[in-house]
Write a structure and sequence with these properties.
alpha+beta, 6-stranded mixed sheet, 4-stranded antiparallel sheet, disordered N terminus
Length: about 675
């Protein structure tokens, strides 16, 4: 059996001590059961060459080689004294000295004075205040004992072919959410994952009906999985991690330009695993199951409570997910205990997400091909459709052309008015013509600018390999990354109703709609973006003089998302990446949008981490999407290590430092606060 995961406790006797301290958890305890005695950390300035022998410093288990923590303190003091005198230290000397020294008689306890005064009732204790970042930060692990995860790493490497075989099964399930007729395949994929969770001994694996099922009967359910923690800590000390993933995929057909069948995982000679969903997001999302499996096979104890939230509609707008998140984030209710004169939290009607301390998502990519990263920012999106309606039916361009106004021609003029021509120069965002759209964009600071210089990114390689054949708008690393991450963009995606099939068709379409989107950055809101775009397009339509009706609508919108890289969730992930890859991760933002990051953070108030396991050239949504073979095992290593790093955090659990507002009944109780 491997060494048990490291757990931590705060020193409640020293409020000024905000350093993090580590203890080794006992292996022979049942999962999530309280220890027989209270663990109390002993804070000592320990000489470096004594650290290995001092052990954990727990009061109920004295440091190695000492009969008590008090003896350990004396040994430490004696060591320092002898070292100052140039003499050597021997523990045997201490043992002999202790044996020959007379012990003082025990002190008699004074009896408390008798009084007839009536005792004052205790003041009720309120739930703890939300922890600050400082209270939750991680200490230096360089000279402290840590869980040995080398067996987990070796296990993952040995099972590489097994993981690939399972991924091949998953890729073969054509769960394309955009193809309504294929949505039963999404359910099949979710059932596949549920069966694996049950096989691995999940405490919970159940389907929840999509909240919008009543509006659309084809919507697949959500899959909720829980694996219990296996530590010696009581329930309220064990942290809960929730990993989100989606098991639906983008449309794909071989005649779209794929070199192989997209739903047949193909391994190439250079170590690529090509198939739709291999990288986005089946491979990374299912890796959490293989992390649990590794712990089971190696008899390693899962150090945290792990929840998995799988959905099947991410590639089609995550319909129903925001409603589910809002419903299941309902916090516990405060209850006043008259007998104990204290306030407790009642989780009876709390949501499934209410006890989550840390969220993690692996649904994006690194900035580089070899250097891993943590992502702390995403752009939001506002997607628009502009509809021009003309005659009652399509018309023959030879018979009727020239005698009627053409809807498609008018639409193209309108779309062209959204941005200035490239000849005007400047960066992409500077050529957007919608008045007021850039007013809320934050200015670039010197501190931010300095961060770009340290990232593993080469613009020439990016142009040559990632966007082959494309002409770059900006020629420097800094400007290219800023254009991708921190400035808004306006991109035209297509025109519905126009002829686009191979061959020639001479038709005047009766109705056409243009599709474009604006990537939003922090401080921009979808409501303001919609108002500005609608006003501008309507004014341009009037100036154009078209004879047809125009309809502008925002199909969906979501804000940008930015997190804190000094948050313990990120620090734990950084340590995990560093342990596996031997170098710290880049800290990056990303131009794409992952709305669930906003939904989880806003609904629960908890930190959301983006921990990608895919390289920058994996080609999500594109032809020949792939996942590098080496990352099949790296994903299991990193995600597993991350859970152990989370278990080393001390301080109050974030999920227990929140509660719903008091009810009128609560406020009416004397002494509630």
């Amino acid at each position: 059996m491997s060494a048990a995961p490291a757990s931590m406790e705060t020193d409640t006797n020293n409020e000024d001590d905000d350093e993090l301290r580590f203890e080794e958890a006992d292996e022979d305890e049942d999962a999530e059961t309280p220890p027989s005695t209270v663990d109390v950390d002993v804070k000592m300035d320990i000489p470096k060459n004594l650290r290995d022998s001092l052990g954990s410093g727990r009061r109920d288990a004295a440091p190695a080689g000492f009969t008590s923590t008090k003896r350990a303190r004396k040994a430490t003091a004696r060591f320092a004294d002898l070292e100052a005198k140039g003499q050597s230290y021997s523990q045997a000397d201490d043992d002999d000295a202790a044996a020959s020294s007379p012990r003082p008689p025990p002190r008699k306890k004074k009896a408390p004075p008798k009084t007839t005064t009536e005792k004052k009732p205790k003041r009720p204790r309120a739930p703890p205040a939300p922890p600050s970042v400082d209270e939750l930060r991680i200490g230096d692990l360089a000279d402290l004992r840590a869980q040995d995860l080398s067996k987990l790493y070796t296990f993952a490497e040995d099972r590489e072919e097994i993981y690939i075989s399972r991924l091949r099964e998953a890729v073969a399930i054509k769960g394309v959410s955009a193809w309504v007729e294929n949505r039963p395949k999404i359910v099949e994929m979710l059932e596949w994952a549920k069966a694996w969770a049950e096989r691995l001994g999940a405490a919970e694996a159940r389907f929840v009906e999509n909240p919008k099922k009543g509006e659309d009967a084809t919507l697949p359910p959500l899959l909720l999985i829980t694996f219990a923690a296996e530590t010696n800590l009581p329930h309220d000390k064990v942290r809960t991690v929730c990993a989100y993933g989606h098991l639906d995929v983008q449309p794909a057909k071989k005649d779209d330009g794929w070199d192989t069948e997209p739903f047949e995982l193909t391994e190439t000679k250079d170590g690529r695993l090509v198939g739709r969903g291999a990288s986005d997001d089946k491979g990374p999302a299912l890796s959490w199951l293989w992390v649990v499996e590794a712990h089971r096979k190696l008899n390693m104890k899962l150090p945290v409570r792990l929840k998995l939230l799988y959905e099947g509609m991410e590639e089609f707008g995550s319909e129903g997910l925001p409603e589910f998140v809002a419903r299941e984030a309902v916090p516990p209710q405060p209850r006043f205990n008259d007998a104990k004169r204290e306030i407790t939290l009642d989780f009876k009607n709390a949501g499934w997400l209410s006890d989550v301390d840390h969220f993690v998502i692996s649904d994006n990519q690194w900035l580089a091909k070899k250097t891993p990263c943590l992502t702390y920012g995403l752009r939001g999106v506002a997607y628009f459709e502009v509809i021009v309606s003309g005659p009652a039916q399509d018309l023959h361009s030879g018979v009727y052309g020239g005698s009627v106004h053409e809807p498609l021609n008018d639409l193209i003029h309108l779309l062209a008015s959204l941005r200035h021509a490239p000849a005007l120069g400047g960066m992409h965002h500077e050529r957007i013509r919608v008045p007021g759209l850039l007013d809320d964009v934050p200015p670039v600071t010197d501190e931010e600018r300095a961060k770009y210089a340290t990232l593993d990114f080469d613009v020439e390689q990016y142009n040559r390999e990632d966007v082959t054949g494309a002409q770059l708008e900006n020629a420097t690393n800094e400007k290219t990354l800023m254009a991708r991450w921190r400035f808004p963009t306006l991109s035209i995606h297509g025109i519905e109703g126009a002829f686009s099939d191979p061959g020639a068709k001479t038709v005047l379409p009766r109705r056409v709609s243009g599709k474009f989107s604006i990537r939003q950055v922090p401080n921009m809101t979808s409501a303001r973006t919609e108002a500005l775009v609608t006003s501008y397009l309507e004014s341009q339509w009037a100036a154009l003089g078209s004879k047809y009706a125009l309809e502008v609508k925002m199909v969906h919108g979501g804000p940008a998302w930015v997190s804190r890289t000094d948050h313990p969730n990120y620090v734990a992930a950084s340590r995990a990446v560093t342990k596996v890859f031997g170098k710290p991760p880049d800290l990056t933002r990303e131009g794409g949008s992952i709305p669930v990051a906003n939904w989880l953070a806003d609904a629960t108030g908890m930190n959301v981490l983006l921990l990608p396991t895919s390289a920058s050239n994996d080609g999500a949504h594109a032809q020949n999407e792939k996942w590098d073979k080496v990352n099949v095992t790296n994903a299991v290593k990193v995600l597993g290590t991350y859970l152990h790093e989370i278990s080393k955090l001390v301080g109050p659990r974030p999920a227990l430092c929140k509660c719903a507002p008091p009810t009128a009944e609560d406020l009416a109780k004397p002494g509630f606060f």
